[in-house]
Amino acid sequence: xxxxxxxxxxxxxxxxxxxxxxxxxxxxxxxxxxxxxxxxxxxxxxxxxxxxxxxxxxxxxxxxxxxxxxxxxxxxxxxxxxxxxxxxxxxxxxxxxxxxxxxxxxxxxxxxxxxxxxxxxxxxxxxxxxxxxxxxxxxxxxxxxxxxxxxxxxxxxxxxxxxxxxxx
Length: 168
What we know:
Blueprint: E1 2-7, E2 12-21, E3 24-34, H1 41-59, E4 63-67, H2 75-94, E5 98-102, H3 104-111, H4 119-129, H5 139-167
Parallel strand pairs: 1-4, 4-5
Antiparallel strand pairs: 1-2, 2-3
């Protein structure tokens, strides 16, 4: 299974591709799609959409694992984040990918063991879990990798539950 993790953002969207089965996985690649805050929002949304389209075409993932929306103090930021998430969900559907969504707290809990973990803690645990020499940067890409790793942990558990049900 190949998972594309997405940390949505309208200025910097993090992405990471991880491949494996159950709890055995490895890094394929990671990076960001950046756009300028000076651009009209619709242009930034298009840039993010096209950028992730290219990533999907290049790596052919089976699953897109995306961070759920979270509470934001600034309503405008929350709205823009929701629009980026919507574009990524639409892209996942158009690409016939399985879509998985995880809350930021669950991602941190799964990867770090603590739901209120700091950015640098997530980066360090991603480094350890993927056996990298240095922590992935920027943090947006590390977060995307954490979201992909989270899917391996939770999808594996769901698969084991489904298999157990079939054996009854």
